[in-house]
Amino acid sequence: MKAVGYTQSLAINENDALIDVDIEKQSASGRDLLVKINAIAVNPVDYKIRQRVNPEAGTPKILGWDAVGEVVEIGADVSEFAVGDRVYYAGDLTRQGTNAEYQLVDERIVGHAPKTLSDSEAAALPLTTITAYELLFDHLALAQQQEKSDEVVLVVGAAGGVGSIMLQLLKTLTGATVIATASRQSSKDWVVSLGADYVVDHSKPLAQQIEALNIGQVTHVASLNNTGAYVEAFVEVMKPKGKLALIDDPESLDVSKLKQKSLSLHWEFMFTRSMFETDDMVEQSHLLNHVANLIDEGKVKTTVGKHLGKINAANLKKAHQILEEGSAIGKLVLEGF
Q: Is 280 exposed, middle or buried (0-12, 13-18, 19+ CB in 10 A)?
């Protein structure tokens, strides 16, 4: 089957940074589904692994952790899906990625794809949806309610893939007041369209801008990038006993700064459940189905930023380059081989 991978870790401008390859198609067993992939999205984790992980000699590494496709074969222990089902998922970091014609994936981390979205529109959602949902409701422990609450949530890096779905989940499922950070006008317009109540510029001191809003102290922070640079600002603006959750990998983080206000620190890594086959692994399937229903009810929309064409090495190299430059708004998607 066709796939896109790499055999050595190279800069994205190198010819062989990503290459078109042929690999063997596997068969489904146990709780696995074999999915024929129709569309994919690209995430920062793709280029980070390409930059840092050298494949085993002679074996191309297949990246990709966002897909929409059709179930073509099921394992003997599968109970929630059938051949012909249209599904969406982010997959498992320890297995072959989505940049291939077919992929095996455990049913417990798979959801039924939203009926009202095209394949490419739906492909934009799984990884960022899981990340945002787990961060908000598992780690920050925000209540899912319709009534207005006194919670004030600051989302740093709100215009990116995770932020774009997180803002919608906050406005649809919680009663919190939402502050988003953005610096470019296009990014500001984007986050407002997704539900941000206020926008502050992360290229300028945060505390002064947030205090000027006169809406009270921040109770929860979702830090989606550059966390190390903002820790002191978070401590300054946060209410005592507030919660801070992050997804990035700061080189250093002085957590002692959180002590005086008894702030709690949480790390969200959406691959934890699949990597360690946790007891609650199936919760990823449940949350994907929940969000698919919200989409079909018109309450949440896709976060596609740009469609880059067919799934091949040339187009995936473009996607990696855009993400490495940090210039993407919304998600980058590709469709068909």
A: exposed
